[in-house]
Design a protein that fits this description.
Oligomer: single chain
Distance between the termini: 38 Å
Mean pLDDT: 85
Structural class: alpha+beta
Helix content: 25-40%
Number of strands: 4
Strand content: 15-25%
Strand order of the largest sheet: 1-2-3-4
Number of helices: 1
């Protein structure tokens, strides 16, 4: 079973994106479906987001 983690920006709300380690991401409003990501793809995504934030 995968443990899903909500974004720290969510607060107490249920309208968020969740990350499952080694699995992918899902919308908290539709938890039965998710988008699978390989570890390499997830790392590339995070690198791109962090680079965009620093601009």
């Amino acid at each position: 079973m995968t443990v899903w983690r909500k974004s720290t920006y969510t607060g107490d709300g249920n309208n968020c994106v969740e990350v499952g380690h080694g699995v992918g991401i899902r919308d908290s409003k539709a938890p039965s479906t998710y988008l699978p990501f390989s570890p390499a793809a997830w790392s590339a995504f995070l690198t791109t987001v962090k680079a965009a934030q620093s601009r």
